[in-house]
């Protein structure tokens, strides 16, 4: 009989971290982004555990059933890396493979420099490794907002996006999941001005559920969790961007030598914003890169939109690791 996911809460790095585990074998830790939960990895938990791996998917700091400190200063790199190292220590794991998506990918890209010796390999989704920005992130965010609506800028002012999204969680989640999927072109949001618009004003209306990659029960899980918690914890990851940038001054561009695979949807707006060769810089910054895969018909939530293709790539990569 295949194993079933188990839930537990660990006291880690001064917070409670809710963790879902499935399977036995070499450990794989999967870090979600915004607006995600451990549940974002549900298809990978099953497939990778069946392939013989111990899959560990936490609700990241600020999300789901994990603690959500109130201030953005609790979401900088010492805190977020401390959560991951504390998780490994609590589970008596010396070294793991790490997967990241969205803000989880941002964090996982930093782990080899911040926690050397704890990272066996990386499996990164949707967000390529890019060179360090020459200016504080919020300087760039303000410039974008002067040209068009930019959620990264809109999220910075404490209380504004919180009130909008917390007040309409079902509507927001349906809109953002659709907008960032392969069924939509997210950058059409840039046709709107920042002046007078909230995020819900610029996101397209979604089709009715079920979708090919998300049914009503799956969607309701997200709605239930975010209705209970609100979105402030997730927004604080955006608000910590300047601090993370400063803390990475000498670490960001340290070459990543561990074996690494990258996967993204062909319709992911992150790739579209990066131009004709989104992987050019990553090849230089990640000497350990063994493959970069682009999956047709998928957008930003590639692991949910095309789980079969993603799982096949990840399992093949894991089986090819030395040792």
Describe this protein's structure:
There is one protein chain. The protein has an 8-stranded mixed β-sheet, sandwiched between helices. The chain has one domain (6-319): Rossmann fold (3-Layer(aba) Sandwich), CATH 3.40.50.1820. 40% of the residues lie in helices and 16% in strands. It is globular and about 55 Å long. The protein has helices at 42-50, 77-90, 103-114, 137-147, 151-154, 160-167, 169-179, 199-202, 216-229, 232-239, 241-247, 269-273, 280-285, 302-305, 307-319; strands at 6-12, 15-22, 26-31, 53-58, 96-101, 119-125, 260-265, 289-295.
- Low-confidence residue ranges: none
The neighbouring-strand order within the major sheet is: 1-2-4-3-5-6-7-8
Indicate the CATH topology: Rossmann fold
Number of helices: 15
Q: Could you tell me the number of beta strands?
A: 8
Please give the domain count: 1
Spatial gap, N to C terminus? 27 Å
CATH superfamily: Alpha/Beta hydrolase fold, catalytic domain
Query: What is the percentage of strand-forming residues?
Result: 15-25%
Which CATH architecture would you pick? 3-Layer(aba) Sandwich
Question: What is the alpha-carbon Rg in Å?
Answer: 18 Å
- Overall pLDDT, averaged? 97
Query: Which series of helices and strands comes N to C?
Result: EEEHEHEHEHHHHHHHHEHHEHH
| Helix amount | 40-55%
Biggest sheet descriptor: 8 strands, mixed
Structural class by helix and strand composition? alpha/beta
GO molecular function: hydrolase activity
Keywords: Hydrolase
InterPro entries: AB_hydrolase_1, AB_hydrolase_fold, Epox_hydrolase-like
Pfam families: Abhydrolase_1
